[in-house]
Amino acid sequence: MDAPASTSSGSSSRKPSVVVTIGMAGAGKSTFVQRINSYLRQNHEKAPYILNLDPAVAHVPFEPNIDIRDTVDYKEIMKQYNLGPNGGILTALNLFTTKFDQVLDLMEKRAPEVDHIILDTPGQIEIFTWSASGAIITDAVASSFPTVVAYIVDTPRTTAPATFMSNMLYACGILYKTKLPFILVFNKTDVESHDFALEWMRDFEAFQAALASHSGSRDAEGEPTYMNSLMNSMSLVLDEFYKHLKAVGVSSLTGDGIKEFFDAVEESRDGYEKEYLPELARARAAREQSLQESKEDSMNRFMKDFSLDQAKNTHATDDKWESEEENEDDDDVDVNLIDRSDAEPWPGQYIDVTRMRRSDEQAQWPRPT
């Protein structure tokens, strides 16, 4: 089998790895998910657990275990809330997020049966990466399972230096926003090899040379344009970013590079356990400490205000409950209670004639005149 040995049968306590696929529209995310789904089914003992989070997709080339379209109706949301396509997708994702605790319960229930959980996100990358619902889903999953972000890049469209730089800046932003292990996946390598991208990432001078040779890099006077100077500067800034980044080239059509991708997932899993989990524990401890300090501060301010109020209002000390000795006189007051249940009837007493008979001596039956 071609699957990594570490993903084969092992300890039952080992949690499955979560792969969150993110990428620009048309980068091939759904096709990539279909390819890794096929690869795992062919080369692995356990099938993956797949979640589709795109409510607007008409068809997916795989069978998801959990589909957002079963929970929310994207078109109906657009009609009810008078929204456009992007607003409908965002609102559908927000509504689905309100039930994501149930999704986590299902994932926890299926965890012993799977080794990989795959999330296919909406095509509109900004809806998932920069929305509150996307952050909630990512943080919730990452706090429960080892999670890796796979950023899918459309390799043929990245041959232009400006497009390449745009993708790298977006990847950098997602990396520092999620703080999760990150893998750059150059897709469609059957059309265009990703070697040029790896060279640009390793050698910023090669990128600057490609940028200088690209049309439109100089103005009419032969001077570098503003965009040219900006991208030159950004290539120097991102040089440190590239050093700590894993990059693989895959073809979702032919399946080339899928094994290398899962090797990178296993390496990233180690990074998750060594870096992300300790950071998550520190963040939780800091939050609990902050909450405790806030409670103590509130209590101290309350006691301070109470002391000041007592000092200003000297009559406040006179307002107190009476002692039991002072209330003893009230306890000796004679109260005459009358229980008329067994007493003789008195004039005007109500008598329910519907419950009496002629033989009753107390009844005063009227006589005809």
UniProtKB/TrEMBL annotation:
EC category: hydrolase
A molecular-function term among this protein's GO annotations: GTPase activity
Domain of life: Eukaryota
EC number(s) on file: 3.6.5.-
Chief subcellular location: cytoplasm
Xref: InterPro entries: Gpn, Gpn1/Npa3/XAB1, P-loop_NTPase
GO cellular component terms, A-Z: cytoplasm; nucleus
CDD domains: GPN1
Residue ranges, compositional bias (Acidic residues): 321-334
Keywords from the UniProt entry: Cytoplasm, GTP-binding, Hydrolase, Nucleotide-binding, Phosphoprotein
Region of interest (Disordered), ranges: 305-369
Compartments where found: Cytoplasm; Nucleus
Pfam families for the chain: ATP_bind_1
Subunit structure: Binds to RNA polymerase II.
Protein purpose: Small GTPase required for proper nuclear import of RNA polymerase II (RNAPII). May act at an RNAP assembly step prior to nuclear import.
Family: Belongs to the GPN-loop GTPase family.
PANTHER family: GPN-LOOP GTPASE 1, XPA-BINDING PROTEIN 1-RELATED
Name under which the protein is recorded: GPN-loop GTPase
